[in-house]
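tool=predict chain=A
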Amino acid sequence: MAITDWPEAQRPRERLIRLGATSLTDAELLAVFLRVGVSGKSAVDLGHDMVRHFGSLNGLFAASLDDFSALHGLGPAKFAQLQAVMELARRAVGEDLAAGITLSAPQAVRHYLQLMFAAKSHEAFVVLFLDVRNRLISAEEMFRGTLTHASVYPREVIRQALHLNAAAVILAHNHPSGSATPSAADLGLTRALQQAAALVDLRILDHFIIAGGSVHSFAEHGQM
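tool=predict ok
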């Protein structure tokens, strides 16, 4: 049955307007995004298919165009729309960080990093450069590929921090197909970066590992 045939009080768009977006399930939110379903399936049914097919919203957000288009009813147009929505969300959270929300609402940093890494299928090392008031100056992917102590160069991070006149940094990297638990190499890399930063009085506020919906904070776990 098409959503237009549902009682108005049960339609996702009308419920969102009346009750707010948080009242909708993942599939219903996707239905509002999709607007229409496909033959034999409503937009909500297709939303359920998307969540089931990709395993999670993070899996959906990280899907390539080919993987996204493999699901019946999806294609380049919807893929482009989804990427635009994600980029708008990234920029909105980035505005909060630029306004100095970093320390007053650390969850904003987590959300920003999850949005940033959702579009990356490769392993990447990102640095958030902050000013003396912990406002975001720049967020930069500095290294990619298999990340080890040997492939991430502390001097490059320090050089860029000095170039941007940053007073502090937040480090982050992802585990695209693993857990957010840090490895011995991750811990060693963090120590090396801390030692290099101390030489120029640069503060490292935290190091995050992003793995889908999981986020590990080195600072919260006493690993810095």
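The first helix runs from residue 12 to 19. The longest strand covers residues 136-144.
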